[in-house]
Specification:
By secondary structure, this protein is of the alpha+beta class. The protein contains 15 helices and 18 strands. It has helices spanning about 5-70, 75-80, 90-105, 140-150, 200-205, 240-250, 290, 295-320, 325-340, 355-415, 415-435, 445-460, 485-495, 530-545, 555-565, and strands spanning about 110-115, 120-125, 130-135, 155-160, 175-180, 190-195, 215-220, 225-230, 255-260, 265-270, 280-285, 440, 465-470, 480, 505-515, 515-525, 570-575, 585-590. The strands form 4 sheets. A 6-stranded antiparallel β-sheet has the order 3-2-1-6-5-4, with helices on both faces. A hairpin with a 5-residue loop joins strand 17 (about 570-575) and strand 18 (about 585-590). The chain is flat. It catalyses: ATP + protein L-histidine = ADP + protein N-phospho-L-histidine. This is histidine kinase. Keywords: ATP-binding, Cell membrane, Kinase, Membrane, Nucleotide-binding, Phosphoprotein, Transferase, Transmembrane, Transmembrane helix, Two-component regulatory system. It is found in: Cell membrane.
Amino acid sequence: MIKTSIRNKLIVLLLIITIVPFGSSIVITYLYTKNSIEEQVVAESKNLLYQGKVNLESYINELDDLTLSLYNNPDFINFMRNPDQGDDYLTIGIVKNVVQTILYTGDTINGVRISFRDEDRVIKATKRSNVIFSSKKNEEDKEAFLRAERSPYNMYIEPDFPQKENEIKRSRNIVTIHRAFRNIPDDEVLAYISLEISPDKIINLSRNLYTGEKEEFYLLTPGGEMIYSSDLDVTDDQNNQKWIKRIVGEEKSEGTMEWKEDGFNGVIMYDQLPLSAGGWILAKRVSYANLYESAFSVAKINILFGILGLTLVVLATLFVSFKITSPIRVLLRNIQEVEKGNMDVRLPAFGSDEIGLLGFRFQQMIERINTLINREYKLELENKNNQLKVLQSQINPHFLYNALQSIGTVALKNKVPQVYTLITYLSKIMRYGMNMEEDMVPLDKEINYTKAFLLLQKERFGDHLDYRITVEEGVREAQVPKMILQPIIENYFKHGFDIRDGVGRIELDCRSVDDHLLITVRDNGIGVTTQRLEEVYAHFKAAALNKIGESTNIGLKNVYVRLKLYYDDQAALHLENSDEGGFKVTMELPIEREDE
């Protein structure tokens, strides 16, 4: 049966030539994507760790430089050498000034302590207390002082704050930088200077070096003690966390290694700060499950498209066995129905070949004819409605003007001239807007309407609004589209006025430049982003092509479309952020239109 059936032979052939390429492409794509993603993630993570190392090193060096700056103060060094001879008020004042200068130099410095080595003397200060001279030493700091003294850099960083993000705060919650202050040029240690630093900046820098739940980040001391951990289940127990011991024992200060122990299967990347900056180790772990997640997704998509392709091949193979004349007969019957006047015909899908395309185009043609018939009918109804609205508009404005005039008269009789002035402005605005007999007006008339609108806004916002209108005398009689300025100015009150800095300001400038009328509206709002400007220009293009888009920026879109209708390409509308802050809209109109 298979040998004699063309349909079966075609099905088998198409399945073979489809399955083999699809299967091979899925395997190759998965392997290539897997390796590419791993290399990309590793490279990005190493670059991120390096940047984090640079930031941490710079921050620690800045703090360390504060203690080194004390060597530039001869009076302070003399006091450190002979503290017993520095009890006069002048010397004490110098010492207090030095301590307070260091304390308030950095926002993260919470406290400063100076502990003399050979005497029971301590000078300390915090942002909650003044400089205190005490004789009580903290015995817990002896080990830290010895480490600072033995360090080739005379410095030791003692971390003492929560290791994990939601761990309960411990008693001190600080990082302390200890420096052995020596009697330069001798090697004798005079005192130990300790800076108590808030760990907030270190924690914030650490949080910027990994991505949420997909990656793990750890900050370790040179000995492997955990300073910061993004995973609550990981501790610095090097017996259970052998990878920490492995990193600490590495001779290289940075590198990458694969790890499949301690309940973790993935890639570990690490980098180390210089010993002069504490020698902390930055480690980042990414599991293979998260690392290859994108590769798995690509493989699933390929398999899905493979199944879809196979299904289409089978359907196409079965389709070629049907008679070609069957869809033609169906199409002919529907044409006869149309000839009888029955426009409500529905053709079945014939496929994607020439006959199917013919049936689809015929269906589109019938639907388009029905749409045109309905449109003409709706337009006729709309014209009737518009006629009624015109008749109504001839009555309503006249009644409204009389009502406003009556209210203004009552205001004057009751000695409330401000109410009369506001009603007058409102009456001008409504009379100007409801006058349907003119679509092009002199610029001076448009400016007067804009002034009335701004005066109403000024009455509403008072001293919180300031505006300035500048009009060149030579352009006052230039013809412009009616109500072309109000949508732009109203856009400021809608989007920029409530989120401004200080008093709201809007400036309107009209002048002549090279036979063109240049109208500029500038405000002091926050402006818009570059992406938003691109979206607005995209809406302009869509509106120019009569496409339906989003309903945002209706005012600006209305202005743009009207400029295109009146001037075609002779006019331009530019939107940009002002150099002084805020948003700027510029219209460039020909003073005389070519079609006049």
